[in-house]
Amino acid sequence: MISWTEVPLDYEPLTGSNDVFVVATSVFQASSLGKNTPARNRERQAHFERQLKNIAWHLGSRNVPVFLSFNGERRRMDKGCIGLAVTAGILEHPVDGPEDFVTHVTLTAEPPTPF
Predict the structure, then answer these.
(1) Is the separation of the CB atoms in 10 and 110 below 8 Å?
(2) Would you say residue 7 has pLDDT above 80?
(3) Looking at the DSSP assignment, which residues form a beta bridge with residue 67?
(4) 33 with 66: CB under 8 angstroms?
(5) Which of 27, 43, 85, 105 is the most exposed place for a label (fewest CB within 10 A)?
(6) Are 73 and 7 within 8 A, CB to CB?
(7) What is the pLDDT of residues 17-49, one digit of tens each?
(8) How high is the pLDDT of residue 28?
(9) Which residues lie across from 74 on neighbouring strands?
(10) DSSP state of 78
(11) How far apart are CA 30 and CA 44, in angstroms?
């Protein structure tokens, strides 16, 4: 069962690009992450990483839930963005949670204070 974590933020889409947090309730296993090359769309990936660090800062933890509710708008992290962030060294490789799917990701470093 998916557990949605509330964050006191509005989702910020990147104009002209696919969402980095998608409206989806599908789950995935850590072994299914396949993106292991540098991002082709660097602007989109940088946007994902900025949002990820901002969420981590707001939650006060390097561990960030995959399933988030942005002021009531439920979104799941994009699986491809997670894989690219692992390849770039931003995230540790995810592990499956107790329900046999990825529920959280972990930043490799403490999130910086915004601004």
Answers:
(1) no
(2) yes
(3) 76
(4) no
(5) 43
(6) no
(7) 999 999 999 999 999 987 677 778 899 999 999
(8) 95
(9) 69
(10) -
(11) 22
